[in-house]
User: Fold this.
Amino acid sequence: MCFCICGYTALKSLVYRIYSLLLFCIAPPFCASCRIFLSERTVLCAACMALVRPIVSLSLQVTRSATVWVHAFAAYQEPLKPLILAKLYGSPIPARQLGQLMSTMPIIQQAEFDYIVPIPLHWTRLAWRGFNQSQEIAQVLSRTSGKPVAHLLKRVKRTTFQSRLSLQERKENVTAAFALASNAQKYSGKRLLLVDDLYTTGTTVRSACTILRELKPASLQIVVACRVM
Ligand SMILES: [Zn+2]
Assistant:
């Protein structure tokens, strides 16, 4: 019996080492920013990681009486800016790498929320892009925190890219952009964590929070990869 367990453990260890070696050969680890070869599988090399600029959390006014905390991994600048912009070129991998970086944030490590809610894309944009960067991030955060992803929002209006608009146009652009998903009511009273890749003026997440507040969540917080300073 003891032999069987020891033999199984040794076999499992051998399989893992072979898998790691194959993965190293097929997809060697590179820094996501400067592309330097890395000796271990991390997102950024030490030099690029040193350029990441952490920022303090922000209190966002959602309604006259309600505010929510916006936690950002870092400022929207090098070396993370290209990982955000990569969504425009059809690759979901940088979004997952942002998720890996965000997994180290205290809010994710402490996991004081019940569900992770990604900001949805309109179905036409999802069909064109092939993936939703916020959902890719949410799935990585779910694996780290052990909390499930819940698709509580749907995007009912196809909006123009926010970066091309003035502040007033951004507000009008995302007005009535979201609605609750058909099964959302069963998540009433839960602790929700809204996830997006980039926070610019806050108009998108404010609009999404306004809709989520209809569920009377026990708590509502926002986590983003980057925030424009
Ligand atoms: Zn680097």
Q: What stands out?
A: The longest strand covers residues 67-75. The CA atoms of residues 151 and 200 lie 23 Å apart. The mean pLDDT is 89.
